[in-house]
Write a structure and sequence with these properties.
The chain is of the alpha+beta class and 103 residues long. It has a domain of 72 residues: Arc Repressor Mutant, subunit A (Orthogonal Bundle). Helices cover 59% and strands 14% of the residues. It is built from 5 helices and 3 strands. A hairpin with a 2-residue loop joins strand 2 and strand 3. The longest helix is centred in the C-terminal third of the chain and has 23 residues. The radius of gyration is 16 Å and the shape is globular.
Length: 103
């Protein structure tokens, strides 16, 4: 697989609100599926599908611990990329507000 296709696979993995939420939950700790499934609006089977996509894209590590699979961020650079995009959006919102006469 070439570099362009690898990048597309990562962007596709990031392009879903549930997967973005998973990455944010894992931003500073390793969690098992049971912990990731708390306070969410989707089923465990749905969660497992999203985790597989993130793992296949090289975003997450998975490690079996007893009966549970624990997930963590494979490379923190992905968190920096998400932060850059969030800052870009904040800047765009500020610019729109300024054009509309807001603060």
């Amino acid at each position: 697989m070439d570099l362009d296709n690898m990048q597309v696979k990562i962007f596709k993995a990031l392009a879903h609100p549930i997967r973005l939420k998973i990455i944010k939950k894992l931003s500073d700790k390793k969690l098992c599926v049971c912990e990731l499934n708390k306070d969410v609006e989707f089923s465990q089977s749905n969660l497992s599908q999203h985790l597989k996509i993130l793992k296949d894209a090289g975003i997450l590590n998975a490690q079996k611990n007893g009966l549970w699979m624990h997930y963590s961020i494979k490379n923190i650079e992905i968190l920096k990329a998400i932060d850059i995009i969030e800052q870009m959006l904040v800047n765009n919102i500020k610019e729109i507000n300024e054009k509309l006469g807001g603060n």
